[in-house]
Amino acid sequence: MGLVKQDVGWRLPDELWAKMEPLLPPRPPHPLGCHNPRTPDRRAMEGILLVLRTGMQWRALNATGICGPSSAYRRFREWLEAGVFREFWRQGLLAYDALAGIDWEWLAMDGAMGKAPLGGEKTGPNPTDRAKKGTKKSLLTDGRGAPLGLAVAGANVPDFKLMRSTLQSMSVERPSPSAHAPQGMCLDKGYDYDEVRALAQQYGFTLHLRQRGEQDKPLEGGKKARRWVVERTHGWINEFRRLLVRWEKREDTYLAMLHFALGIITWFHALLPKIGF
């Protein structure tokens, strides 16, 4: 996402920091009562963001002068356990919904595989990369590409197997669909299974599913299913280089990095609704 690359980089804009700072837990007292001055929260967060944006190793922060690697990683784990990154994403969705309205009419879901050289939790052999270790991100977006749900698994897990967990991961309450306000679910042929159809019926979705061997065709009224928005959001996620190649062995730290990136993407939807996302 060129805008994220240009305007966020590794420095948090004042607007984003104003949304994140209130989510941080109180500073814990030092057990010895006195110590070197604590690294300011904003500098620690920008150190974390630099790792997320560039994919650099934590210890490489030593050369940046922004924040020491130990302080940045310790604060990262502290804020992860406090749920800061997921809440940052959730608050962004609430702000986006209040300003522009989440487009529930055209939901889209798709999975994307990535390399995971170090392996770890929720990784597996990648069937498209000579069975090397990889991970899969299953993403749900609204009709404009705002990320609503996310699940991770090994690269060998089929997309349709992650549909339920992705739907259950939604950070905001989903309104009930109705005849006057239907909710379309746009899926590619990787979801062409009876299990998916049953799940769509259970959740009340109007399913727009491209079947295997079928050519893409317009829906009723000449419209085409909007699967492309979720593919674009996967592209935005990949601009955060720590997520393009997964270096986290732990599932919780990997999810925290993902939630941070999704929060930034979502807040850009909320703060800049006219930029053409």
UniProtKB/TrEMBL annotation:
Protein name, UniProt field: IS5 family transposase
Superkingdom, according to UniProt? Bacteria
Ranges for domain Transposase DDE: 185-265
User: Which residues are in the Insertion element IS402-like domain?
Assistant: 12-88
Task: Using the UniProt annotation, give all residue ranges assigned to the region (Disordered).
Answer: 118-138
One Pfam family of this protein, by short name? DDE_Tnp_1_2
Q: Which NCBIfam families match?
A: transpos_IS5_3 (NF033580)
